[in-house]
Amino acid sequence: xxxxxxxxxxxxxxxxxxxxxxxxxxxxxxxxxxxxxxxxxxxxxxxxxxxxxxxxxxxxxxxxxxxxxxxxxxxxxxxxxxxxxxxxxxxxxxxxxxxxxxxxxxxxxxxxxxxxxxxxxxxxxxxxxxxxxxxxxxxxxxxxxxxxxxxxxxxxxxxxxxxxxxxxxxxxxxxxxxxxxxxxxxxxxxxxxxxxxxxxxxxxxxxxxxxxxxxxxxxxxxxxxxxxxxxxxxxxxxxxxxxxxxxxxxxxxxxxxxxxxxxxxxxxxxxxxxxxxxxxxxxxxxxxxxxxxxxxxxxxxxxxxxxxxxxxxxxxxxxxxxxxxxxxxxxxxxxxxxxxxxxxxxxxxxxxxxxxxxxxxxxxxxxxxxxxxxxxxxxxxxxxxxxxxxxxxxxxxxxxxxxxxxxxxxxxxxxxxxxxxxxxxxxxxxxxxxxxx
Amino acid sequence: xxxxxxxxxxxxxxxxxxxxxxxxxxxxxxxxxxxxxxxxxxxxxxxxxxxxxxxxxxxxxxxxxxxxxxxxxxxxxxxxxxxxxxxxxxxxxxxxxxxxxxxxxxxxxxxxxxxxxxxxxxxxxxxxxxxxxxxxxxxxxxxxxxxxxxxxxxxxxxxxxxxxxxxxxxxxxxxxxxxxxxxxxxxxxxxxxxxxxxxxxxxxxxxxxxxxxxxxxxxxxxxxxxxxxxxxxxxxxxxxxxxxxxxxxxxxxxxxxxxxxxxxxxxxxxxxxxxxxxxxxxxxxxx
Lengths: 437, 287
What we know:
The complex is a heterodimer of chains A (about 425) and B (about 290).
Chain A: H1 16-60, E1 65-74, H2 77-80, H3 88-93, H4 96-107, H5 114-121, H6 128-138, E2 146-152, H7 155-161, H8 178-189, E3 193-197, H9 199-203, H10 216-247, H11 252-264, H12 269-283, H13 291-315, H14 319-327, H15 332-361, H16 364-368, H17 389-397, H18 403-433
Antiparallel strand pairs in A: 1-2, 1-3
Helix pairs in contact in A: 1-18, 4-6, 10-13, 10-15, 10-17, 12-13, 13-15, 14-15, 15-18, 17-18
Chain B: H1 4-23, E1 40-49, E2 52-62, E3 67-71, H2 78-84, E4 95-103, E5 106-107, H3 115-121, E6 122-125, H4 136-147, H5 153-166, H6 170-173, H7 186-199, E7 204-208, H8 216-229, E8 234-238, H9 242-248, E9 251-256, E10 259-265, H10 266-271, H11 276-282
Parallel strand pairs in B: 3-8, 3-9, 6-7, 7-8
Antiparallel strand pairs in B: 1-2, 1-4, 4-5, 9-10
Helix pairs in contact in B: 4-5, 4-7, 5-7, 7-8
């Protein structure tokens, strides 16, 4: 391209066009630098997310399978139901551990030493007798026969089968000894060992034994806590926002309230836990470690978020809509509920979901109100003792057993799935409410 | 009720005039502000936004079946005055109205009079078309429904149809009543807003620059409509277009910096203004 010769204006100054042209290169370079920085930042961020997810999934995916051992268990009538009454109580009380041991001794008749026999028995999970009991209760007609039953292996065997225990280490440094390895290999060769889908992980409460520990208790705890938090915080938050934004007089008091709401959003969450402990448990005497108290504390914590987001949503509704409604003679409340609220709803839902996601991941305030307790039972309501997913993850991450490592990652995956489900619900809801104006 | 930003804008609009108004001596209205058998009478109406005065001692009658146009430079208080007539100013914090405004002999600022009832009798059409983000049918049916004006669905259907017919919109929308009102063109939206106002069967319709956001063709349609509506309603229209005031109104009021300078027959105002300020304005010397 031919560059026109720089023109000199009559005043002797260079032409403005030339000045602008000279600066263009520098301006564009600056823009390119900024774009490049942005793109790099996004890339680094994505990389970190991918790494995080890869790490969690790689560590955790094995937890969705569990090693089982198939044993030919003789369900002898004389040891299960000696009186032949068929009564449920009798069947429940029988010694199923003995049956399992007998089955193992049958398979390995050469093991006679007491110590060795104890070692042999330990390849089966301590939860196995329960499983056999349930099997018998479900099929009482099979008493007196020998049945091939899959029972869970103990966590060490599970880890061995999943390759988390290195066979090449010297025996002294290995959790599974040579003798046990021999038994396992023989069982495997006979097709008596298999990895199956880990149903217990999804239906059990937590346990000291990794192979028996499940997420169901924490999941239900989180569900009840969040449900109650939503029920409490959404109407209160939206109501407060409408009142403050549309009805409250503007004076020093409402200014003070506004400042305090903004400040509350930034208060460390553990402070809310202390408040819950002092007020709800200490003063009102509510049962500690329950979804009820947890939800109340989380409600206090989420309210500022919801109120701030809802007020912003109300503010963004064009005033012309309010005038239109007032102009045809709608009362203030009708104007709010018929016209303003439907338009502000998507923004309010977004705020609520952000608050709920925060509440779902919250650990600190729940520790203060006792939701860190070791609770095996799955909560059945708002006043049952419970724990929640993030606390469960924390507890498992803190456990020394190798089996809990993969379960921690698996629990994180469940938590993330829960979060994705909630966000999806929010997006769908928002799309449903969204209307143009 | 309104957001702070909106309020502040409105207040500052009015203030530019207000500050000047306070320095000037009160200006007596030229012309006869009364009409025989008025629908609304306003006497010594003054409006303050906080400590600032926006309207000074305005006396004005609004007749039956007439179109009264209010003209004047920006910030002269004409919109403020219009919004007093159905108490829309109530929603602005710090706004104070004194004097008396009567609708059929009843003071509308009386404590006993409900502003909701007043607004059902004095409807308003705004500067920017503001249909509800609902269907065309719902837009028109909303007013009658909240006031309980109809007893059955059939009656409501009929009312919606008559209102849309009166607004000259029926033929254009009768096949798509369930579609959003916001999907119509600007002119159609404004007629929808007029239909929505008519549906409540008001006595007076206030229009705040109803054509300022419309093209000339849509404006012509609305002006024609205003002329037809005169048969049944009293109409007060604020406009920046002097041609529009000349075309649609029978009487014209000229506002200047918070004072009602001159009021009279539209013909007379535009051909033979009595006051110097009116003459300057309509001849285009300022404004």
